[in-house]
Amino acid sequence: MDFEKLADLLFPEIDKTPDYYEKLYPARNLPEGARVTRFAPSPTGYLHIGGLFGALVDVLTAKVSGGISYLRIEDTDKKREIEDGVSGITNGLKAFGVEFDEGVTGFGTETGNYGPYTQSQRVEIYRTVAKSLVKQGLAYPCFCTSEELDSIREEQEAGGADIRGYFGKWAKCRSLSYEEIEKNIAGGKSWVLRFCSDGSEDKRIAFEDMIRGKIEMPENIIDEVLLKSDGIPTYHFAHCCDDHFMGTTHVIRGEEWISSVPKHIALFRACGYRVPKYAHTPQVLKLDDETGDKRKLSKRKDPEAAVSYFVEEGFPKESLIEYLLTIISSGFEDWRRANPGVPAMDYPFNLKKMSSSGCLFDLVKLTDVSKNVISLMKADKVYACVAQWAQSYNKDFYAVLCADPARSAAILNIDRENPKPRKDIAKWSEVKDYISYFFPEYYESDFTLPENINPADAAAIAEKYAGVFDLNDDKDTWFSRIKDLCAPLGFTPNVKEYKADPSAFKGHVGDVSTVIRIALTSRKNTPDLYSIMSILGTDEIKARLACAAACWAKG
Ligand code: GLU
Description:
Elements: H1 3-10, H2 18-24, E1 36-39, H3 49-64, E2 68-71, H4 87-95, E3 102-106, E4 109-111, H5 123-135, E5 139-142, H6 146-158, H7 178-186, E6 192-195, E7 204-209, E8 213-218, E9 225-227, H8 235-245, E10 250-254, H9 261-271, E11 277-281, E12 284-287, E13 294-296, H10 307-313, H11 317-328, H12 332-338, E14 359-360, H13 363-375, H14 379-393, H15 395-402, H16 405-412, H17 431-435, H18 455-468, H19 475-486, E15 491-492, H20 495-500, E16 507-508, H21 509-521, H22 529-536, H23 538-553
Parallel strand pairs: 1-2, 2-3, 10-11, 12-14, 15-16
Antiparallel strand pairs: 3-4, 5-6, 6-9, 7-8, 12-13
Glutamic acid binds next to α8 and β10.
């Protein structure tokens, strides 16, 4: 067979050789040991939490080694295509601060010298490489119809074959002559381009997975499809060309790809490319509420499978990243303890410290992590984040919150910016309810008392307190005024004294404070009351105390 002639017959429009692209995409000039990684999703418009997890691993692996990470869009599967399947992914990544050095940045935008970073724009490259494989006798056209392929499958199934697919005696197009091929093409028969595998059934192939260690599998013997009948490459072929020309050193991807590695190694070798290092990441799992078993996070059943869920709920990016790192890397929590306050993205990530079994994603744990993360933020930042979230997801609250930014920031500063900050807020969508009693637009009075306090006593406390509080007091004086209210009303300022003989008193200073708290906020639990009062101001305090007293006096 004259392979040169065959290549020209199959690819008449291709006038370049792979050499052209070798020059166009020269080896990257990076320091020794620098890793080049990529995140390569299909443009489904949807970023799964497992995708963000993988992207984070890509970015950190490159970052700690002084390398490059990039985002490539793998859109060779036209069946899965939607109008703009990219923004949903890039927005999700941006929202959580997972940013690549190169590649696709949004719908129709990209940056970097190794592009285009969208596979559908690289068809000429794939076809050039494919043509060169044909020239070397390493690929051939296959004219089998889907009926013929079905009957091969049926025959293989009936015969109980271990290996199924297009290979060996079934690969009949492998031995077509030039004349037959020419005739088929002239007759308008459609064809795919197949890889001419030289694998052998009894040989095994071993590779070192950075996360899982040595993996051994049978060699690939299948004549895989490289180009589909529309001339578009399969994922297998496209990613091999791209990872080569884009200089990827480490292919980090989901564990579902492990079984394809022999095929991929064969392809890299046939093309004359250096085989990249592999790291197959574990799946992100959850405990099923009903069965209690671990299972994959499902797009259909679990709202938290979508990264957009965390944006809508208003989880800060720092919280989600912090939590993902705790489940991604066994060393993260120790590092965090030793390095409080350091940005999570500075973590010296190591692929080898990743667990190879599934990572359990637990919303309750994320909530705890997030409360901690938010408690350490400064009030101005909390204010800015809440405002930004509300602008998109709660416009009404946005207007209320931003009417007086300084006051809102002061509200959010209560019990914050101190050595033991309060850990109450896990996500921005909770903030409106958390602080609603400060705003007349939202405040609804509810003077329900705990059972141990009777309304007449509460009314007396509210009335008396209205006459003595003074916003100019320092905190000690403020509290001593509350203590001073106790004895004349039958309470004791001394909790120990109360506990020694509860029947001697109506209650203690804690109960008196609770009454004042309820009168002022309609809540039994709030952050520091002294700070709350200084923000409410004298007139509002008086009005609320009077209102509560009147309500309790009615009984
Ligand atoms: N496009 C493939 C996917 O979405 C990427 C696999 C890889 O990273 O190589 O799963």
